[in-house]
Amino acid sequence: MTSAEIQARSAALRAFYPMRVIREQFGRSMIALAEQRGDLVALTADLMYATGMAPFGERFPERLINLGIAEQNMTGVAAGLASCGKLAVVCGYAAFTSLRAIEQAKVDCAYNEVKVILCGLSAGLSYGVGGPTHQTFEDVAIMRAIPNMTVVVPSDTIELDQALQAAAARPGDAPIYLRIGRGPEHAFNDTAAPFEIGRARKLREGRDISLIANGPMVVEALIAADILAEHGIGASVLNMHTVKPIDREAVLSEAANVRGMIVVEEHNIHGGLGSAVLEVLRGGHGFPVELIGIEDIYPPIGPTFALRESLGLCASAIVARAMAMPRRN
Amino acid sequence: MVSERQGGSATPQADGGNRLTAELARRAYNIRRHALRMGEVQGQGYVAQALGFADVLAVLYFQALRYNPADPHWEERDRCLLSIGHYAIALYAALIEAGVLPETEIESYGSDDSRLPMSGMASYTPGMEISGGSLGQGLPIAVGVCLGLKRKASRSFVYNLLSDGELNEGSTWEAAQSASHWQLDNLIAVVDVNNQQADGPSSQVMSFEPLEARWQSFGWHVARVDGNDLAALSEAFDSARNLQEPKPRVIICDTRMGRGVPFLEGREKAHFIRVDPDEWALALEQLRLEA
User: Fold this and answer.
1) SS3 at position B166
2) Which residues form the domain of A43?
C-alpha cells in the first residue's frame, strides 16, 4: 500500500466523524455545570471569547470573574475562592495556565490542597496559527510532575463534557488539569459510554499492535486501526484520557496481549503520555514501544490539521509506523 | 476556656489608650521571647524578622484580628494569610501568645514531627491559613478569599502579611490592581519594610520607593507608620478597619530587624541569622532589660 493510498483511505474514514467545535462545547458544558452547581465560579484572563465562555458570561455574569491578562493572579484568586468553598474553574489557555502560572498551580492549588479545576484551552496544536508561544506541547509533562495534580486530556466534545462533570463531582481537595483544544475536532465518543477519571477506554480490540492515545490523537488512532485491520494487522486502541493517575492495569494488560505498542499524543515526546506509559512498562516487557509526538522542536506556524500532518501526528503516519516497526514474536 | 476575641477598636480615651499600649507591649515582649526560644532550638533562623515584626503582630492578634483560639476554623474569624512564609517563626510566636498553639510546642520547632515547621504549612499548624514559602503568592490568594467571603455575605476581614522584598514580585501587583478593581474593602495588606532581603538592603537590591505613592496609584488606601511604635500601629489598624471608602487598605510598617535585642539589631547581615549557643541567653537577657 502506497502512502498516497493510505492517505486517501484515511481521508475517506475521517469523513465518518462529524466535526464539533471544542470551545463552543466548553462554553455549553460550563453553563450546564453551573446550572447544577450553585457554588461554581468561573475565572478567565481576558479570554472569555477565546475560551467559548461568552455565553456563560451572559447567562451568569456574576459568576464569571475576569482578571484581565494576569494568569498568576487568576490562579491564586481561584485558590482563595476554593478555600471559601467555591468550585473554582479556571478558563484559560493551556500555554499560560501551565507555564505562566505554574507556581500558583503548584503552591496555591496542589500544595495547599484546594479543589480548583484548571482548564487549559487551545492546547497542543489546536491553535497552530498562534505559533509556538500559544501552541502547548509541554503542559502534560509539567502538570504531571506536580504532586496532588490530576491530568485529563479529553478526546472530543463528548468526552470534554464528561470530563468536566467528573472533575466537578470528584471528592477531595485537590486540583485537576483538563487539557482542552479549541476549534473543530472529530467527534466519535459514545455519549452513553461511562467515563471515569483514571480508567482508560478500550475502543478497538486487536492482538498485533496496541495504539495508546489521548486528545485529538484518539480519532487518528481509530482511523489507523481501521486501515491496519483492512491489511490484516489487528490494532487495539486504548483512549488514555487520564495521564495521571495513569491506568496501569490497562497499560500492562495491553503489553501482555499485543506484539508491539505505539503511544500517540499531541505533545512533546518528552514527559507526556508516552513517558507515562514507559514509566509503567519500565522496559521490563521486552517488546517494541514507539512514541509518536512532537519531536522536541518548536513547530511551524500554521493551521491545525496541516500542522499535525506535517509533524506525523495523523492516522497515515501511525499506519506507516505500525507497518514498519518490529514486533515481538 | 478562652472566648472568641472580637477584633475592633482601641479604647478611645487617653488613659485607656495607655493601658492598651502597655498590654500590647507585654504581648510584643512575649512574642519576641517565644521567637528567640524557637530560634535557640535550631540555632538559627529568621529571628531578626520576628523581633522586628513582633509589635505589628501584637497589634494584629491583640487588637485587630477576630478569632477563636479554641477553634481556628471558626467561620466568623478574620483571615490572616502569611504570604511571607519564612516569617513562620514570627507567626508561631504570635499564635502561641494568642493561645492558638501551646507554649510547650516551642521545643519542637523545626523538628521532623513538629507542627511548627520552619516554613508555614496550613496542613500542619492550627491558625495557619495558607501554606507559603514562595513570595508573591499570598496577595492573589487573599483577593480570592475576599471575593469568596463577600459572596457569602461574610463581614470578616482578610489580612495579608507581606514584606518589602516581596514587592519585587509581579504577581503581588497583579493582585493589587484586581483588589482595587473590585473595591475589596475587606482586604488589609500589611507590609513589613525592614529594608533587608537575602542579598542585602532592599533599597539596593531593587529599589521600592516611593511605596505610599505606588500603592495609592494602584487604588489603595495607604497608611505608613513606624512598625515598632505600638500607639501608631494601633491607630493605623483601627483606621484601616473603620475606613468607609470602598477600597483595599495597606498598612506599610517600617520596622527594625532584631528590635529589642541590641546585639542583633546591630547585625549587618540579618536576613537569616546564626547565633552561637551561648548567645541565646544573652539575647533573652537583653530583651528583658530593654522591655
Assistant:
1) helix
2) 19-186
